[in-house]
Write a structure and sequence with these properties.
The protein is α/β, with parallel strands linked by helices. Helix content is 37%, strand content 19%. The protein has 11 helices and 12 strands. The strands form 3 sheets. The protein has an 8-stranded parallel beta barrel, surrounded by 5 helices. Strands 1-2 form a two-stranded antiparallel sheet. Helix 6 links the parallel strand 8 and strand 9. The relative contact order is 0.11. It is an enzyme of class 2 (transferase).
Length: 290
């Protein structure tokens, strides 16, 4: 038995509760790809809060505390302004709200690119202060040395190649990558470089489908697709996109619910009840017992 943090939904407070440690591990994720194939695809979604993690955790193999929280939670124009402190705060919340999934935390822009030493300082802080299982960082060949440096020092790394949102200014936008032969070759080279460097898995985002198939078949580590191919070893989506929290739906997203409409309708009914003095009723107020 080991003490983990579970959410008391009656009070919305996180309280330490003894629970058996059933969490998946990074080696268990790696082993899902055997002899170049993954029998059952890996499931990954983003999570940013303890309650969200608690709801998603039973259905996922991995929860990613993505720097997409900059746009999803904070309304920022891109992921670039996200700080290490923001990632740590949300990462710790997701770890507290989960017990089964491998929790990974994104390394934000500017926290790892300067040198392997800078990356280790940032990643070790993330690991120590959140309790997560590993970190994710963007970049291919250019980051191979850093991935090796971290991996050799006990920090599991998930790589991120293809469309890398932190490099959106250099890429010129969020369009799919790999349309030219040169870029096609570069993405495959990036995949092989990060796998050889020691990444335990990689996210492959926004690439032409034939590239995704080639990458998945050419590396021994799990390839998690987003806007890539069903042939990948697993899939990831931003949970809010999948749940229908936003009007805009990227091409690679399948919307499974329309939570935005549900929330809007609930808020409208609440507002009407308040304005008509239909809330609170005697069921929601405190009165002396007779």
């Amino acid at each position: 038995m080991s003490t983990t943090f579970t959410l008391d939904t009656s009070t919305s407070r996180a309280n330490p509760t003894p629970a058996p440690m059933k969490r998946l591990t990074v080696p268990a994720i790696q082993r899902r790809k055997f002899e170049g194939k993954t029998e059952q695809p890996l499931v990954m979604l983003t999570a940013y809060t303890a309650r969200q993690a608690q709801l998603l955790d039973p259905h996922c193999d991995m929860l990613l505390v993505g720097d997409s929280l900059g746009q999803v939670i904070y309304g920022l124009p891109s992921t670039l302004p996200v700080t290490l402190d923001m990632m740590i705060a949300h990462g710790a919340a997701v770890v507290r709200g989960s017990y089964h999934s491998v929790v990974l935390v994104d390394m934000p822009f500017g926290s790892y690119e300067a040198s392997p030493q800078q990356a280790f300082a940032s990643a070790s802080r993330v690991m120590a202060e959140t309790g997560c299982a590993g970190v994710k960082l963007e970049g291919g060949v250019a980051m191979a040395e850093t991935i090796g440096f971290l991996s050799q020092r006990g920090i599991p790394v998930m790589a991120h190649i293809g469309l890398t949102p932190q490099a959106v200014n250099a890429l010129g936008g969020y369009g799919a990558r790999g349309k030219s032969q040169e870029e096609h070759a570069k993405i495959i080279s990036d995949a092989r470089a990060v796998a050889q460097a020691g990444a335990f898995a990689m996210v492959l985002e926004g690439v032409m489908e034939d590239i995704a198939v080639t990458v998945t078949d050419s590396v021994d580590v799990p390839v998690i697709g987003i806007g890539a191919s069903s042939h990948c070893d697993g899939q990831v989506l931003v949970a809010e996109d999948m749940l229908g929290m936003f009007e805009r739906v990227p091409r690679f997203v399948k919307r499974y619910e329309n939570i935005a409409e549900t929330i809007g309708n609930a808020a409208a009914r609440y507002a009407q009840d308040v304005r008509n003095r239909h809330f609170p009723t005697e069921d929601q107020v405190y009165r002396p017992k007779k």
